[in-house]
Amino acid sequence: MGSSASLDRRTAAVWERASHVMDPELDESIVDLGFVEDVDIDADGGVYVRFRLPTYWCSPNFAFLMADDIARAVRALPWVGEVRPRLEDHMCSDEVNRGVELGLSFADAFAGYQVGGSIEELRETFLRKAFQRRQEAVMLGFRRAGCTDAELVAMDLARFDRFTVRDAEGLRQKPRYRSLLLERGLAAGPQDLAFVTLEGEPIAASGLAAHLRALRAIRINMEANGALCRGLSEARYREHHVEPAEPGEEHACGAAGKAEACSGCALGGTRARPDTQIPAHAPMAF
Amino acid sequence: MFRTPDGEEVFIIDGHTHFWDGSPENQSNIHGKQFIDCFYAYHTALSPKDKLWAKDKFEKYSAEQMHHDLFVDGPDDMAIVQSTYLTEFYKNGFNTIERNLEIAKAYKDRFIVNGAFDPRDGEKALEYIHFMKENYGVKGVKLYTAEWKGESRGWKLTDPSAYRCLELCQKLGITNIHVHKGPTIIPLDKDAFDVHDVDHAATDFQGLNFIIEHCGLPRLDDFCWIAVQETNVYGGLAVALPFIHSRPRYFAEVISELLFWVGEDKLLFGSDYAIWTPRWLVEKFWNFEIPDDIKQEHGVDLTREAKRKILGLNAARLYGVDVEAQKAKLKDASLAVAAE
Known about the structure:
heterodimer; A: about 290 residues; mainly alpha; two-stranded antiparallel ribbon; 10 helices; about 5% strand; B: about 350 residues; alpha/beta; 5-stranded parallel beta sheet; 3-stranded parallel beta sheet; 14 helices; 10 strands; about 10% strand
């Protein structure tokens, strides 16, 4: 391993890769959600990514999926040796960590229990939901920007790309929707329809209201997850902070766990995140 | 009794409450600790700041405290107290029917005590259902499909053993089946809180009412779809309702979806005490108006009549509570207390 500057660069690269991993149920980045606690890189290019979920009880299959996604995402970096995602403080930490480390399937990792349904099925379920959620945000954004319903259902990808949305959620979701649309093979060229059903069928103008209603139900649902997870995550971290600090575990900056204040503070040998974009519920180093 | 700002008296049945013991002395293992910690996280995440409890009080509270929070400081007229065992985590169970019966006995006419069963007990579960009916006269049960038992990490309403239990409930008139289908607490597999098993069971047991606690959150869309197809499926608002404080606009969307799909006759208020206390929930709910744009978009409204139904009349119907008679009884009781 080279200089500390190059270590910082590598650490930042790992954080960047990890930020592409989504919580499957929320379709939001696990880094933005504050689940990733720490990244460590050893002399052989081995990468450890410690993560923690909002509760001890978060679904193990979701946890397994995230651990597996972290390993995949980080392995894409050319210099990386072994990748070890470490799920901490969870009822199934051992099964998840061991399973991902050995490259086991979910069923094998949890062979001691009666589990049904594969992790791939689960991944697909959530990709479908993500597609629908993104589509709704973009369709509403297009509508708000003056696009009529008739234009919306007939819009091709070329026009889609030229069209400017202005609201924040529409802006955020437009590229995410587009990439999932292409990834799933629902559109390929500029003449293909930009808004289709999950099965790739066109949406009739007369059926648009019903289509949007169904999408809205999915969004409301996913937002419940998001709100709960954020709340629980905050509550879990805060609880940590009200406990009396062990000697030697105080934040060097003196911040009682305030992200803004301690982003630069190194605690107990753990490394603070190198970039300054700490999300609201950023991982605290403790 | 809840009195509205303009003087109307609204009858309140709190459809989902607990009298638990999650204290360290009762915990069998780390899971017991983590379980109550998770509840406490829900409490701190969604309560207004001035309603927060200290951890030790939350872990175990007295019958007096509960009575005060529900009926003295709180607006409840009656409360349904649910039984949840979690015997793998708690030495004496988390909130047992015996513990619930004690509080019900101490405060007459206030509590409806629900039982519980675990179909994995086989014949014993059937015997126990008979026992609860004969000795305690239960009208409902709370089922926790994600409860651990030995190697098992959950069960489904559609399991043959569960069907035998439901058949017996239907036969004995234990008609209200509360099912926890809510946020993740203990599922391992694809999802022990997945709501789809409700669909089959509700179709096959027309004599039973299925009250889905937490409306299947965070699987509200699946729940709405099932509830709209099955006439005997209800939604319990515990967990959905506290969003009224932290994210009122979001709550407006959730309640609008529920009103549209499930309807005002099939939603039940529940504080989920002691995760939340009923006073602020009822006050905020009564004063709540769905914003105009959401009202128009969803094509629904939360009228006074809808609020009355959700806060008490729907539960009264399910449990055969004669509201006027009950009001008179409670009034007499409070006069007697005042006279002492």
